[in-house]
What we know:
281 residues; mainly alpha; 6 strands; 49% helix
Amino acid sequence: MSSPLHAGLEAHFAALEKFLAAQELVFEPEVRPMVRDVLAHPGKRLRPLLAFSSGAGGPPPDALVRGAGIIELVHLATLVHDDVLDGADTRHGSDTPNRTHGAHAAVLFGDALFAHALVLAADHPTPELCRIVARASREVCSGEVCQTFSRGNDRLSLDDYYRHIRLKTAELFEGACRVGALLADRPEAEATDTVTLAGKHCESGDVLLKDLALPPATTGDVLAVFATGAYNASMSSNYNRIPRPAAVLVHEGVSELVQRREQPEELLRYDVLPERLRSVI
């Protein structure tokens, strides 16, 4: 896993491999060789990469590594099932569980991987992680069912095709990003810094919160506040020709755009250049 995308996350992936290897011991002795086999060929680890990138900032926290590992276990489960459905004997140049142990055992092994991912997610203090993982698992499996039913259908609509690939692939990508963002949250971290929170204009009248106690902040951190003054939708203006921000509603983990971000060209829509000045430009 050496690529420009993985650069800077070496410690994260080292911790991930250690976490995944440790999961072998929770399975029964008969199942452990299957776990070792699927972990022996890591591939690109794209879904953990999305989780880490969505929650990166400093050393890898245990919760984030665990979350990335949960998402990868779900992905591995789908690959085991895929190989059964496709009758595949090899993956990454090695025998699949389908070939080594047969379709019946491989299906049950994939189920066990799904279940173990949900067990790990259920250990999180709040249900949100389990909800993300369960939803992604449901959608991926539903996508496989849809694809199975559409095999040989050369009249499949483009809309249905996009729906199938969203379910089979994009949903787990989205879940990985959500897990990373969720587990990068640090509300309980020790507040050791005292800061002043200012808006982008950074002037005396642009201070949102003063003498605020926070954990050490790093580039890319997101800070949620209850009041944003002139930056919110009701009080926003085009001070210094700054486009008005977007407005988003969030309910039960689902975001809805209710007002899009203003574009720079929209700031100029009422400007008129007199004819006598056109030759000067």
